[in-house]
Each structure stands twice: as C-alpha cells, then as structure tokens.
Specification:
elongated, Tetracycline Repressor, domain 2, about 190 residues
Length: about 190
C-alpha cells in the first residue's frame, strides 16, 4: 500500500517553509523565530508547527550525512583512504547545505522528547561511523593507538565548524576544503615512530 502522491503545490509550499525555517533558525535561532516570521518570509501559511519544521530540517540533514558517509564506511578499502573520503563527503554535505547544517549542529537541542532522543541516537550512530574508521586504522597499525572516541570527536568537531566560515564564493571549492582538512587531520593520525 503506497502513499498518495503529494500535490506539487503542497510540496512546493513545504519546501518554501523548510528553506525559510532553515535561514531564519540559522540567523535568529529557533527560539527567536516564530511561525509568523516564517510565514512572512514565504508569503504562505505554515505547513505544520515550528517544531515540525525543526524536526524535518534536522532529520533531512542527518539523512544526507548518512547517505554520504555510510557507503564509504562500508567500503572494502584501507582505513586511511576511507577516513579521507568520509571527511571530504562530510564537508560536502555541510557546504551544500549551510543553513541546514547550522540548524543540525545547533538548534536540535530545542526538539522535545521523544524527538530529541531520536536525534541524539542518530547523531551517536553517525559518530560511530567515524569511530569505526578510527578503530580500523588503529587495529591495522596505521593510526597511532589513540582513544577512538576522542579522535572521532576531534575530526567531527573540526569539520563541523566549516559552516561558520565557508563562503561559496571563497577561494577554495568544497572539494579543496575537504582535501585540505583531510590532509591536516589524517597526517596527525599516522605513526611517527
């Protein structure tokens, strides 16, 4: 049994609302943004409540991060190559979705239960992909024997701030930024002795 197709007008309204909510939640914060602000930005009546929009933005961003990195983590390749590719993919998701990334990283805390717990669970599962890459590199003797959780958090923390300073018209492409970050972060993980 399939779902009935969503009329194009409804999908367009919802997309407009999500885009406006992403911008406003990033600029003003979730708490300072009202449904009225979002409606004024789009010129259309709200589709769902404000928290529904936050949930949709956070969930969609999580889906994009997983879609970009899960296949890399599952690939039959050496850990350093997978980590490098995962870093570049993660940066790519951020740079393609700056507003959504800002909401994903900062505003999810305003979700009420059980949505907040579900988001935290998915965030932990995503972090586990990077922890697994660290573990594989350590076990193979390529990475130094460091705490895998700490190393994964270091990498993700460094990458996640990209939304703060990346400029689409800046001197580096998202791919160049990803490669540069991968070089800086991965070279610090190789054994020196």
């Amino acid at each position: 049994m399939g779902l009935a197709p969503v009329p194009a007008e409804t999908a367009t309204r919802k997309d407009q609302m999500l885009a406006a909510a992403e911008r406003l939640f990033r600029q003003k914060g979730y708490l300072a943004t009202s449904i009225g602000d979002i409606e004024a930005e789009t010129g259309v009546n709200a589709v769902g409540g404000k928290e529904d929009l936050l949930w949709a933005i956070a969930s969609r961003a999580a889906d994009e991060f997983f879609a970009a990195v899960e296949p890399i983590a599952a690939a039959d390749e050496a850990a350093p190559l997978k980590l490098r590719r995962a870093i570049i993919a993660h940066v790519g998701v951020i740079t393609r979705n700056l507003d959504a990334a800002a909401v994903y990283f900062n505003e999810w805390r305003h979700l009420s239960e059980p949505r907040r717990a579900e988001f935290a669970r998915r965030r932990d599962e995503y972090e586990a992909l990077f922890r697994g890459l660290m573990r594989d590199g350590i076990r193979s003797g390529i990475f130094a024997p460091v705490d895998e959780k700490f190393a994964a958090l270091l990498v993700l923390s460094a990458l996640n701030w990209t939304y703060q300073w990346y400029k689409p018209d800046g001197p580096m492409s998202p791919e160049e930024i990803g490669r540069t970050l991968a070089d800086l972060l991965c070279n610090g993980l190789y054994r020196t002795a």
